[in-house]
């Protein structure tokens, strides 16, 4: 009985720690995207978490676009941002103080590191 209770308690704590860690991704994150041609574009995401669902917005040249099909698994995530007929796939990993994200569109793939935006007064 004690072994079963201890196992259940450890599993519960592990699940709680995972959810607490990924909940830390909620908020505004910024970075830079450098294309294969050397152009640099600012990145700005506002992530919202609802269980294992990732929602929010991504700032694009066309304005703020919704994050679509967002899913969180452990400390990894994936989502899509659509600009007109272009679907931009994002996959990434949350590291606590940064987010690594791979961005893929039209056969091109780039990597960027995002940092949390400083709070606004």
Descriptors for this entry?
121 residues; alpha+beta; 8-stranded antiparallel barrel
Description:
By secondary structure, the protein is α+β, with helices and mostly antiparallel strands. The chain has a single domain, classed as Beta Barrel (Lipocalin), CATH 2.40.128. It is built from 1 helix and 9 strands, in the order αβββββββββ. Strand 7 and strand 8 form a beta hairpin. The protein is globular.
Give the SSE layout.
Blueprint: H1 2-23, E1 27-34, E2 40-50, E3 53-60, E4 63-66, E5 68-73, E6 76-83, E7 86-94, E8 98-105, E9 108-116
Antiparallel strand pairs: 1-2, 1-9, 2-3, 3-4, 3-5, 5-6, 6-7, 7-8, 8-9
Strand content: over 45%
Task: Enter the CATH topology name.
Answer: Lipocalin
Approximate shape: globular
Termini separation (Å)? 53 Å
CATH architecture: Beta Barrel
Mean pLDDT: 83
Protein name: Glycoside hydrolase
Signal peptide: 1-23
Keywords: Hydrolase, Signal
GO molecular function: hydrolase activity
């Amino acid at each position: 009985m004690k072994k079963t209770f201890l196992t259940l308690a450890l599993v519960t704590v592990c699940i709680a720690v995972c959810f607490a860690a990924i909940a830390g991704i909620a908020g505004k994150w910024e970075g830079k995207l450098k294309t294969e041609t050397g152009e640099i574009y600012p990145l700005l995401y506002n992530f919202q978490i609802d269980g294992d669902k990732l929602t929010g917005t991504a700032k694009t040249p066309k304005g703020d676009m919704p994050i679509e099909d967002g899913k969180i698994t452990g400390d990894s995530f994936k989502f899509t941002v659509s600009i007109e007929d272009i679907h931009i796939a994002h996959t990434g990993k949350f590291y606590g103080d940064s987010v690594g994200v791979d961005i893929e569109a039209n056969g091109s793939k780039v990597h960027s590191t995002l940092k949390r935006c400083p709070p606004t007064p």
